[in-house]
Amino acid sequence: MVVKLSVNTMDRKIEKKFWSGRRILMIGAGALVAMLLAYTLIFADHRATLNVEKDKITISPVTKGTFDVYIAVTAVVMPLKTIRLDAIEGGYVSHKYLEGGSMVKAGDSILRLDNQRLMMDFVNHETEIYRLQNELQNTRLSIRQQKFTMQQAIYDFDAKIAAAQDLYDRNKQLVEEKIVARQEFNKNKFELEGLIKQRDIQLQSQRYQDENATRQISQLEGTLARTQRNLALMKENLNSLIVRAPVSGQLSSIDVEVGSSITAGQNLGQIDDLNGFKLRADIDEHYVSQVFSGLKATFEFDGKTYDMIVTKVYPEVKSGRFQADMNFEGKTPEGIRRGQSSPIRLVLGKSAEAVLLPLGGFFSDTGGNWVYVLDKDGKRAVKRNITLGRKNPLFFEVLEGLKPGDQVITSSYESFGNKDVLAF
């Protein structure tokens, strides 16, 4: 007997394949994502980046050229010579003949001062001179009279001595002949000797009086001469009460009015000599040790350049600045006026070849220690450390970190924070 077995296909279990297409696709996608993540972690740029608008920044090229060591300063045109008008004597202003800005000639009257005390002193000195002159004249007259009196006394003594000498000579012979008594002869002898002694005393007195008179006259003459000199000085001071122009020029200022009280030595104004001009510059105190007489400078006026030289430096610093005077080395430009201001290029050292970076606002943000340098494609700017040297009004001298051809952002970095990369 044959048994026929029947197998139901619906009841057979079908095994699934492990590496199905879907599984392979999912594993491959996961591996790809893992590889991308690994690449990003290992090789991607993790620097802080900021997106900026390129048209709102300033990009400057780094170049190589001549670095001129100079500074630009503002100078004011001033007269080459300014004469101060100071009061020699004090007083009050009684007349004012000219106003500021007037042209004057040497000797022109500008002001008149009145000083009553000085006038009284002058009158008193003049009176004293008259008194001394009279005293000197009277002294000379008195001495002359005394001299005549002394001469008369000497003449009288000479006459008496002559008479006594004659009597003595006669009695001497008679006493020897015993005609005249010895007593009478001795009396005559004593009288003669007394007269001679009195004459000697009179001569000594006359010499003393002559010496005393000479000394007295010399003292009076000295006092009179000193008083006359003082009077001459006072007369000059009186004349100086009329303030006159010492030179021709422009009365640029006169700072007093009628009725003003003026003290001796007070400045009244000044006169500008218009035969030449100089420039006075205000310079930052940072350069006070670098500016000295003899430095060169250039001045541009009316399309022309004029050479100048520093002639005087005022070392006093006020409000962070000091001043220096500069004279023209050649012809003074025609048309410049007192008070006109102009930029001056003041040379501080020799020029030299250098890598140059234009000035910009970046320096105040970085101190010149780093800058943003553009990539070759110009799509990004990366922070780079640099070293800067000297600077002039146009450029920094680059010592390290940049080369000619580099493109650098030179505008302010204030809005960039501290990002390492700027993307455009």
Find the CATH superfamily of the largest domain. Answer: Efflux pump adaptor protein, beta barrel domain
CATH-assigned fold name of the largest domain: Elongation Factor Tu (Ef-tu), domain 3
Shape: rod-shaped
**CATH architectural label of the largest domain:** Beta Barrel
Our count of helices gives 4
SSE order in H/E notation?
HEEEEEEEHHEEEEEEEEEHEEEEEE
Spatial arrangement of strands, main beta sheet: 4-11-14-13-12-15
| Strand portion | 25-35%
Given the helix and strand composition, which structural class is it? alpha+beta
Q: How is the main sheet built?
A: 6 strands, antiparallel, barrel
Distance between the termini: 94 Å
Mean pLDDT: 83
What is Rg?
56 Å
Identify the CATH class of the largest domain. Mainly Beta
Range of helix content: 25-40%
How many structural domains can be distinguished in the coordinates? 3
Low-confidence region ranges: 1-10
DSSP E strands, number = 22
Transmembrane segments: 24-44
GO molecular function, one term: transmembrane transporter activity
Subcellular location: Cell envelope
InterPro entries: MdtA-like_BSH, MdtA-like_C, RND_pump_MFP, UPF0194_transport
Question: Layout of SSEs?
Answer:
Elements: H1 21-43, E1 49-51, E2 59-61, E3 63-67, E4 70-86, E5 91-96, E6 102-104, E7 109-114, H2 116-176, H3 182-240, E8 242-244, E9 249-254, E10 261-262, E11 267-284, E12 296-301, E13 304-318, E14 321-328, E15 341-347, E16 352-358, H4 362-366, E17 370-374, E18 380-385, E19 387-391, E20 395-400, E21 407-409, E22 421-423
Parallel strand pairs: 1-22
Antiparallel strand pairs: 2-21, 3-16, 4-11, 4-15, 5-7, 5-10, 6-9, 7-8, 9-11, 11-14, 12-13, 12-15, 13-14, 16-20, 17-18, 18-22, 19-20
Helix pairs in contact: 2-3
